[in-house]
Amino acid sequence: MKILIVEDESGLQDMMSRALRKEGFVIENADDYHSAIDKLDVYTYDCVLLDIMLPGGSGLDILSHIKKMDRKVNVIIISAKDSIDDKVKGLELGADDYLAKPFHIAELVARIRSVARRSQAGGDFAFRFGNAVLEPETNRLMVAGKEVPLLKKEFDILKYFMQRPGHLVDKAVLAEAVWGDHIDQADNFQFIYAQMKNLRRKLVEAGADIEIKAVYGFGYKLIEK
After folding, report:
1. Where is the OmpR/PhoB-type domain (predicted)?
2. Each residue of 171-184: pLDDT tens digit?
């Protein structure tokens, strides 16, 4: 899961970033209104942790911007302004949850996983395609009822495709989604090719009836055989 933290308190932002990365999330940060808008216009996220009081503008305006973009992204408002009016306005604008400062990281992680579960059909937080089942909470891939061991990035790549079966995915978009927006500093995509090769091999060896098909000159897409 890729998360954008919009928080201007550097100490809190750093603490949240380190803790959530340990939980296996891909984390990016913005510390003011304009940098948050810039990132949201260029990159895609599964969840945004959004402070209300920000330099340059309001977090509630960022929330409105997200909803106008019509993207499937969960938003959790995180603010020291623990007032009913702010909470109600945020939820009315489309926020998925509200967490007041100070808070424990364990509660934040639980809230993130909770809104992610609710965003899945029927609250079933697992991705199914063909005879493969991907379980984000346990980091397990099951093929025909048997577990298939995956490395962390292999799991993240497959999860990205399981969320978009049949969709053509550009390799640069995939790299940014899985490795974060610092990927633009990389010289080439050899690391993606290596991870993809191993993942595709493991799916074949496990007897999966799905495959990540290479589309020459464009990227990849997940299909049923």
Report:
1. 124-224
2. 888 887 777 655 55
